């Protein structure tokens, strides 16, 4: 009856293993939402850097193809979770957050 009060979660958290499994899928884009300095230190191969703390984050991701699959990560999974929510609110339907972020990434 009061479903409209619930915040819809429009992305899925994935374990490092599941996240890695999707990396080679067709039409998949990996987004690192950390700062450029953090991205320079260590990043998942093939990732693009779109800083979620940037004032232009929403505009930048709004330019992306909504038909693709997006694998999103940060250091701990918090900022990427926020980024995934923004992307879902913008109409993206295939958005996945790396649960635990790079801290959980053994690869």
TrEMBL record:
<dbReference type="InterPro" id="IPR001763">
    <property type="entry name" value="Rhodanese-like_dom"/>
</dbReference>
<dbReference type="Pfam" id="PF00581">
    <property type="entry name" value="Rhodanese"/>
</dbReference>
<dbReference type="InterPro" id="IPR036873">
    <property type="entry name" value="Rhodanese-like_dom_sf"/>
</dbReference>
<feature type="domain" description="Rhodanese">
    <location>
        <begin position="24"/>
        <end position="106"/>
    </location>
</feature>
<protein>
    <submittedName>
        <fullName>Rhodanese-like domain-containing protein</fullName>
    </submittedName>
</protein>
<dbReference type="InterPro" id="IPR050229">
    <property type="entry name" value="GlpE_sulfurtransferase"/>
</dbReference>
